[in-house]
């Protein structure tokens, strides 16, 4: 059977959770994701998370997870959190099929861009994304990404209880 790509629903939360743990192992992140299967299902049901599942011969081969954000300079864009293909299914067009589906969604919605993060040691992923026109804007534009973890948010909020909301 050929590659089949479907939109994820909350009913796929267990499969997505399994793939997220496999991805964490691949990315050398032994603690794995913090989200539970229930939280994944809820995020999909509430349209906070979107996904595509890829099947080869009716076997789950990979997935892509993304959401939408807004850039005040360019408009709505897609943030691609993950594309992951199980090792047994790599080099069989699964990643390319997922990418084509993502690009089609972005094009149909007239999105400004698809944005993603890649670990610097994952040279295969870097080559994969560059083959589809991705640009490392860290180098090209000098942007650096920052994040404020939950623990720091809590500290700041507790230290500033009268801050306006």
TrEMBL record:
Alphabetically ordered keywords of this record: Acyltransferase, Transferase
PROSITE patterns registered for this protein in UniProt: GNAT
Gene3D superfamilies found in the cross-reference section: 3.40.630.30
GO molecular function: N-acetyltransferase activity
Cited SUPFAM superfamilies: Acyl-CoA N-acyltransferases (Nat) (SSF55729)
Highest taxon in the source lineage: Eukaryota
InterPro entries in the record: Acyl_CoA_acyltransferase, Diverse_Substrate_AcTransf, GNAT_dom
Annotated N-acetyltransferase domain residues: 14-158
Family label: Belongs to the acetyltransferase family.
Protein name: N-acetyltransferase domain-containing protein
Organism: Plectus sambesii
Species lineage: Eukaryota, Metazoa, Ecdysozoa, Nematoda, Chromadorea
């Amino acid at each position: 059977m050929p590659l089949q790509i479907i939109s994820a629903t909350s009913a796929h939360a267990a499969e997505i959770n399994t793939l997220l743990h496999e991805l964490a192992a691949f990315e050398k992140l032994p603690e794995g994701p913090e989200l539970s299967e229930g939280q994944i299902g809820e995020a999909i049901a509430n349209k906070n998370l979107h996904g595509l599942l890829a099947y080869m011969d009716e076997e789950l081969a990979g997935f892509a997870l993304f959401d939408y954000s807004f850039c005040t300079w360019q408009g709505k864009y897609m943030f691609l959190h993950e594309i992951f293909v199980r090792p047994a299914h790599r080099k069989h067009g699964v990643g390319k099929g997922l990418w084509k589906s993502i690009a089609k969604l972005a094009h149909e919605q007239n999105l400004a861009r698809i944005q993603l993060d890649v670990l610097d040691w994952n040279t295969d992923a870097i080559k994969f994304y560059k083959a589809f026109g991705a640009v490392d804007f860290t180098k090209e534009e000098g942007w650096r990404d920052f994040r404020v973890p939950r623990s720091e948010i809590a500290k700041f909020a507790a230290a500033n209880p009268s801050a306006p909301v």
